[in-house]
Amino acid sequence: MIESLIVLIILIIVLGIVVFVINMLIDLIPMDPRFKQVAKVLLILVAVLILIMRALPLAGISLGHI
After folding, report:
1. Per-residue pLDDT tens digits for 23-55
2. How far apart are CA 8 and CA 1, in angstroms?
3. What is the mean pLDDT of the chain?
4. How many C-beta atoms lie closer than 10 Å to residue 18's C-beta?
5. Percentage of residues in the chain with pLDDT exceeding 70?
6. Does residue 66 lie within any of the structural domains?
7. Is residue 47 part of a domain?
8. Does residue 19 belong to any structural domain of this protein?
9. Which domain, by its residues, includes 49?
10. How far apart are CA 27 and CA 61, in angstroms?
């Protein structure tokens, strides 16, 4: 159980760094501010979904064959 929590904490740290870097790259790309906002929202959504998929087994919820 403690190993799973450590892995989850490491995942949160790595995912946070990756989201931060991609977010900075999105800001550097010249495009319409609406599209930038959509890209940032999609980035956060994907990161949260990855985090939820990794955290659900810790709560005892099986994801099947995923």
Report:
1. 999 999 999 999 999 999 999 999 999 999 888
2. 11
3. 90
4. 13
5. 95
6. no
7. yes
8. yes
9. 2-59
10. 37
In angstroms, the CA 20 to CA 25 distance is: 9
Whole-model pTM over 0.70: yes
Angle (nearest 5°) at CA 62 between 58 and 65: 125
Maximum alpha-carbon separation in the chain:
46
- Tokens, residue 7: 């892995």
Number of domains in the chain: 1
Sign of the torsion formed by the C-alpha atoms of 21, 27, 30 and 33: positive
Amino acid letter, 56 = L
Residues 6+ apart with CB under 8 A from 63: 53, 56, 57
20 within a domain of the structure (yes/no): yes
